[in-house]
Design a protein that fits this description.
The chain is α/β, with parallel strands linked by helices. 25% of the residues lie in helices and 29% in strands.
């Protein structure tokens, strides 16, 4: 019996442990992947904190791997192809939550949940595009903003540093918002036309002075900050939330009457959405900034990610 290494959550609330378990076999309509890289995402905390359908569970949903074996009836992919998978695992499954994910040397995936990964991007760089990249790309792609419009990115972290690149490459007047001046140089290098230091000035007022934002993308999970941003929208503007803390927003009816304004979330992540994000990233040379860890240091990578100490996406390098 062939064995593999994996980082597994033994039971609800327990810390991940390195284990050696049998390599799984693909079922009908599935394929076996040899995992090359897996991003470490905030969404992994859902399983780690106890919400998986059952335990033990292998987390991870930003996965790039090589097709090694085809299950019965699987015809979409060929052995040797490099593919990726994100949050939606297909057949009503969530990768790393209701089915085992990518913190392992091998995993089984449904063939219709996979996306082809082009040669122009490495597996480690492609991994964060499966969730963080697709999330920010799709939020902007499906927004009211059109080329030339003012788009503000609030928070220059794991999501925000990608969103700034996408906004610039999509032809938006891109404004980055963050605390302090530490990230200004980086934000401008990533493509921001303007930078707002939220410690020195009110972001909403600063955006109004620039003419008001058509879209504000909130990438930092701070309810108070998110609530204050609505006043920086221009006419018929849109505040899109892609990261939240679970705390209630502080909005009044009047906030919506001065627009008209829209506040909404954005959560997609199907294979077709990931494919579009990857294609755009390759065509426009958008890449995540990553910090790489071996599989054995997954706990360290996860803890640094949760503490916002990674710059900017943590990625497990497994077999690339």
């Amino acid at each position: 019996m062939k064995m593999m290494k994996a980082m597994q959550i033994p039971s609800k609330g327990e810390k991940m442990k390195l284990v050696e378990i049998p390599v799984p076999h693909p079922g009908e309509g599935q394929v076996l992947l040899r995992v090359e890289a897996c991003g470490v995402c905030h969404g992994d905390s859902v399983a780690i904190r106890g919400a998986a359908s059952e335990y033990p569970r292998i987390p991870g949903h930003e996965i790039i791997g090589i097709v090694k074996e085809l299950g019965e009836g699987s015809t979409k992919w060929r052995i040797g192809q490099r593919v990726g998978i994100g949050w939606h695992g297909g057949h009503n499954h969530v990768t790393g939550l209701t089915m085992d994910g990518g913190y392992a040397e091998y995993m089984v995936a449904f063939e219709d949940s996979l996306t082809s990964i082009p040669d122009e991007v490495s597996s480690k760089e492609a991994a964060p595009l499966m969730c963080a990249g697709e999330t920010t790309f799709s939020a902007l792609r499906n927004s009211k903003a059109r080329p030339g419009d003012l788009v503000a990115i609030s928070g220059i972290g794991g999501l925000g540093h990608l969103a700034v690149q996408y906004a610039k490459k999509a032809g938006f007047q891109t404004v980055a918002i963050s605390r302090g001046r530490d990230k200004e140089t980086l934000a401008r290098e990533l493509g921001a036309h303007d930078y707002i230091d939220s410690e020195k000035e009110d972001p909403a007022q600063a955006l109004k002075a620039l003419g008001g934002a058509k879209v504000i993308l909130a990438t930092a999970p701070n309810a108070k900050v998110i609530s204050s941003l609505i006043n920086g929208l221009g006419t018929d503007g849109e505040l899109i939330i892609v990261a939240g803390s679970g705390e209630p927003l502080e909005l009044s009816a009047r906030d919506f009457l001065t627009g008209p304004n829209t506040v909404r979330g954005s959560f997609t992540g199907q294979a077709k959405d990931i494919e579009a994000a990857v294609r755009f990233s390759v065509l426009t040379d958008v890449r995540p900034m990553i910090e790489v860890f071996p599989l054995e240091r997954a706990n360290e990578a996860y803890e640094e990610m949760m503490a916002a100490k990674t710059r900017f996406r943590a990625v497990l390098s497994i077999s690339e």
